[in-house]
Amino acid sequence: MSVSKDDAQSALHDVEATERRSRTLFGYGLASPYLLLWGALWIVAGAADALSTANPGIVWGAVDIFGLLATAWLIVRHARRCGQRSERIHLLRYVGSAAALAAFVGLTLLVFAPISGGKVLMFFTLLVATVYAIVGCWVGLRYAAVGIALAGVAIGVFVLAPAYLSSIVPFAGGAALILGGVWMRRA
Known about the structure:
Blueprint: H1 5-51, H2 56-81, H3 85-112, H4 117-138, H5 141-160, H6 165-185
């Protein structure tokens, strides 16, 4: 029995589509722990900030340092899971992108200093939301959905309840990241 050219092309197309879907789902599985980690850290920092309003920058700084160390550990762990060289290079591109983004944030805050806590919180929240939305355009729509949800929550609080910004956004944003992480894990 011979296979027609159209049947062969259709079969190859199906294989390519399945491979893309598999890669996307694998990426969701890799992203899930980061979302869960940072969602929990936002909630912890928000709770600590709410309990001790004297130095919120110190609390967030300590939580961020812990989060960056935990993120580095996850990156090393995931690099070991990525068997192919191309997957490790892809992971390193994310690390390089994160380093460029961290430099951008640091320099932006330096240029615009001093700014209030609420504006810093909104800047970081919208920046994270934008990064997820951009990643979603390239990697998988679930990232974009997380970014849109995070931005929607932050803007909603900013417009409707600005006095409660520092109380609501860390918890709602953290919950959005955790729910996104659970959603990606179940993909």
